[in-house]
Amino acid sequence: MSYPKELKYTKEHEWLRNNGDGTATVGITEFAQTELGDIVFVELNDTGESYDQDDVFGTIEAVKTVSDLFMPVSGEVIEVNEDLADNPEIVNEDPYGKGWLVKIKFSDASDVEALMDADAYQELID
After folding, report:
1. In this predicted structure, what is the pLDDT of residue 39?
2. Which whole-number Å values give the CA distances from 103 to 48, 70, 72, 73, 108, in the listed order?
3. What's 20's DSSP letter?
4. Does 124 map to a domain?
5. Which domain holds residue 92?
6. pLDDT confidence of residue 94
7. Per-residue pLDDT tens for 9-26?
8. In the chain, which residues have pLDDT < 70?
9. Could you tell me the CATH number of the domain that includes residue 80?
């Protein structure tokens, strides 16, 4: 499995890509999508919603289970991946690319410091 070095990770298996402009892209890791199996539905809350770090911001449903999605950092959702409504399997096919979930505007960029780097995340799941 791959864990891109430029991303930050949570113990709940979300990843965060800092876009460098006060925004970030959030998704689930390759490990998470493998554990879930075939994803059949993604429910994400609307843009404009604000969350604290670790708040639930949606759910992801696979054939076997439904899992909550946890916000890696505090912020406001500024974009939702609309492609997932009709094609949730994109998360399985490309979890770090086209399978992203939401884009957020940070309310506290220091939240990123609490996240794991790729090496720490890999240790967590091994």
Report:
1. 97
2. 11, 13, 11, 11, 15
3. S
4. no
5. 8-110
6. 97
7. 999 999 999 999 999 999
8. none
9. 2.40.50.100
Question: Residue 2 falls within a domain, yes or no?
Answer: no
**Minimal CA–CA distance to 18: which of 85, 121, 108?**
108
Predicted local distance difference test score (pLDDT) of residue 1: 76
Per the CB < 8 A criterion, the answer to whether 9 and 26 are in contact is: no
The reported pTM is 0.95
- CB of 26 within 8 A of CB of 12? no
Q: How many domains are contained in the chain? A: 1
CB environment 106-121: b (16+ within 10 A), e (fewer): beeeebeeebbebeeb
Of 53, 54, 15, the closest CA to residue 33 belongs to: 15
Closest CA relative to residue 79, chosen from 43, 42, 46: 46
Q: Which residues, other chains included, contact 113 with Cβ-Cβ below 8 Å and sequence gap of 6+?
A: none
Provide the pLDDT for residue 108. Answer: 87
